[in-house]
Amino acid sequence: MTALLRIIAGLGFWAIGFSLLYAVHGLACAHGWSAVAIGPLDLQRVLLAAIWIAACLGLLWWVRAMSRAPRDGERPLLGWLARISAVTGLVSMLLTGVPVLLLRQCDGRALALEPGWPGPVVQAQGSSTGGQAQG
Predict the structure, then answer these.
(1) 131: left (phi over 0), alpha (psi -120 to 50) or beta
(2) Distance of CA 64 to CAs 12, 59, 84, 87, Å?
(3) Which of 89, 123, 122 shows the shortest CA–CA distance to 18?
(4) Of 10, 6, 9, the residue nearest 86 (C-alpha)
(5) Burial class of 108 by CB neighbour count within 10 A (0 to 12, 13 to 18, 19+)
(6) DSSP E strands: which ranges in the chain?
C-alpha cells in the first residue's frame, strides 16, 4: 500500500500545486490584486510566484526523497515508478507554472513582455449585433 502511495504522490503533489496556483489566480483576478503594487511587481504575481516556487521546492524535495529511498530488491519496478512519478510531477509543475512569470494576468491579453501583443482584439462572428439575431 505504501508503494502505491509513493507512486501516485509525485503527480498528486503536482495536482495539488496546480490547483492551488490557478485557484489563487482566479481569486486574485476577481478581487483586483493585480492593481496592488509591491515594488515593481503586483500582489497577484508575487503570490502566484511564491506558490509556484513553494510547489517546485516541495516536489524537488520529494524527488530527492524518492531517489534516496532504499531499493526494494523484490519489487524494483515499484521504486522506479515512484521515482519517475516524482520527476514527472516536478517537470509538470515547472512547465505549468511558467505562465505565472511570463503572461499577463486577468486582462485577456497574452504576453506581459510585449506591449500590444497579439494585436487588436478580433470579435467573434455575430458578436457585433449586440445579442440580436440577424435575419
Answers:
(1) left
(2) 16, 9, 12, 9
(3) 89
(4) 10
(5) exposed
(6) 37-38, 41-42
CB 44 within 8 A of CB 33: yes
Of 94, 86, 90, 69, whose CA–CA distance to 8 is shortest?
86
135 belongs to a structural domain: no
Within a domain: 53:
yes
Inter-residue contact 92 to 13 (CB < 8 Å)? no
How many whole angstroms from its chain centre is CA 59?
A: 13
Give me the number of domains the chain comprises: 1
Give strand pairing partners of 111.
103
Confidence at residue 109, expressed as pLDDT on a 0 to 100 scale: 53
Tell me, what's the pLDDT at 120? 44
**Spans in the chain with pLDDT lower than 50:** 110-111, 113-114, 116-124, 127, 131, 135
What is the grid cell recorded at 46?
Answer: 508575487
Asked if the structure places residue 122 within a domain, the reply is no
126 is a domain residue: no
